[in-house]
Amino acid sequence: MMQPIVQVDSFTDLPYRGNPAAVCVLDAAGDERWMQDVAREMNLSETAFLHREEDGFRLRWFTPVAEVELCGHATLAAAHVLWEDGWIRPTESARFLTLSGLLTAERGDGWIAMDFPATPAEATELPAGLLAALGLTEAAAAGRSRFDYLLEVADPAIVRGLAPDFGALARLTERGVMVTSPSDVPGADFISRFFAPAVGVPEDPVTGSAHCCLAPWWAARLGRERLVGYQASARGGVVRVELRGDRVIIGGQAVTVLRGELVA
Question: For position 158, which CATH number holds?
Fold first, then answer.
């Protein structure tokens, strides 16, 4: 039997912008090796696989080389597909059972709001060679979250001009590294870029899970819990965030760009 697959651009309302993710809604739990093979075949930063379980959907995320514990844009894409294809009612919340616990999503006014765990960064000494791998000589501040390193720089031009040594970054034991600064984009409070070659994603176009760290970081600096981030990759994308204690509400838009069927 052929398996439908949908490709969705997340954190954008325009096709071919934001971050693309593939979504497979399965009849039952998928074979792990097959899911990894499909993710490698799709060659996107993430492919999401989900099936009904208990009172929600079991959701797993795979890069081309590894399963990850948390992914924002592929969760956004999965929620978008569940509503668009009638898997859940238009007014029903999407509930996902994941390696990071229960995640939920609701939609309204053309946006999808996801409830994610906050992953605040604690001050840390950076590993030897990280600044050089990013082409930086210094950072204004640095921290380490549950998954990633965070580096803050003073000038958005530095963020935009980064040309990392991906081979060096791939030797990190953490998932990836985000570099952030105050915004030069109207309507946004901060900008960022995210690099994760260690899990097969040299640069992620728009990273929802990174904003679980960026939200508490910038909320503390700007004194506000509702913020807007712009991820300054070549594709670009807008992420709304709201810090609620140990949770972050991540808001984004999504658009379907491709539908197909897997025959193997």
Answer: 3.10.310.10
